[in-house]
Write a structure and sequence with these properties.
The complex is a heterodimer. Chain A is mainly β. Chain A is built from no helices and 11 strands. Chain A has strands at 4-6, 11-14, 19-25, 32-38, 45-50, 54-58, 61-66, 71-76, 85-92, 98-100, 104-109. Classes of the chains: A mainly beta, B mainly beta. At the A-B interface, strand 5 and strand 9 of A face strand 4 and strand 5 of B.
């Protein structure tokens, strides 16, 4: 079983839709939970990170962590064509080792 | 501009021909890492370094070497590349107590 599972998609939505991206994990020691965005032919860039269970909002993006279910989500409101990218979830353990999901490819259609 | 740079960006080589991919960061970060990204497998860590002269294996270190002689540079060395090392490689850096990793633009390597 992989440490982090992520549905690869691809996901295609119309502009303005609400997008939900999800990951599950197996290691209860994971402390930090992150979402990276990767545009084609670019390196990943950090979008959001959270430390504890609950929600964290940043503009149109909301990151949600449920440690009891070992489940994290990223919601994108009012999605835009510029949001089209691959979204990677990532987690780190107390030893600062990082574990990445395989990424979900998102296309927002104008 | 704060950044991680990698060279070359694209490389096609043949089996057994030694190569080095350079990585440099200008943010004075302590931590540097190398990842490979493959379809369906995501990002997997090859090696990481917590500071100068300190390196350790990640999840997939076989066939790779690294060195950290200076804080800003972390080259990845493939002494005898094989076709299964064909992949997209990313270098990343971060400060010691922070989780935000800054990634380079990637190096697409093809080993024939």
């Amino acid at each position: 079983q992989k440490e982090v599972e992520q549905d690869p998609g691809p996901l295609s939505v119309p502009e303005g839709a609400i997008v939900s991206l999800n990951c599950t994990y197996s290691n209860s020691a994971f402390q930090y939970f992150m979402w990276y965005r990767q545009y084609s032919r670019k390196g990943p860039e950090l979008l959001m990170y959270t430390y504890s269970s609950g929600n964290k909002e940043d503009g149109r993006f909301t990151a949600q962590v449920d440690k009891s279910s070992k489940y994290i989500s990223l919601f994108i409101r009012d999605s835009q064509p510029s949001d089209s990218a691959t979204y990677l979830c990532a987690m780190s353990d107390p030893g600062n080792q990082f574990y990445f999901g395989t990424g979900t490819s998102l296309t927002v259609i104008p | 501009e704060a950044q991680v740079t990698q060279n070359p960006r694209y490389l096609i080589t043949v089996t057994g021909k030694k190569l080095t991919v350079t990585c440099s960061q200008n943010m004075n970060h302590e931590y540097m890492s190398w990842y490979r990204q493959d379809p369906g497998l995501g990002l997997r860590q090859i090696y990481y370094s917590m500071n100068v002269e300190v390196t350790d294996k990640g999840d997939v270190p076989e066939g790779y070497k690294v060195s950290r002689k200076e804080k800003r540079n972390f080259p990845l060395i493939l002494e005898s590349p094989s076709p299964n090392q064909t992949s997209l490689y990313f270098c990343a850096s971060r400060r010691a107590s922070y989780n935000e990793q800054f990634f380079g633009p990637g190096t697409r390597l093809t080993v024939l």
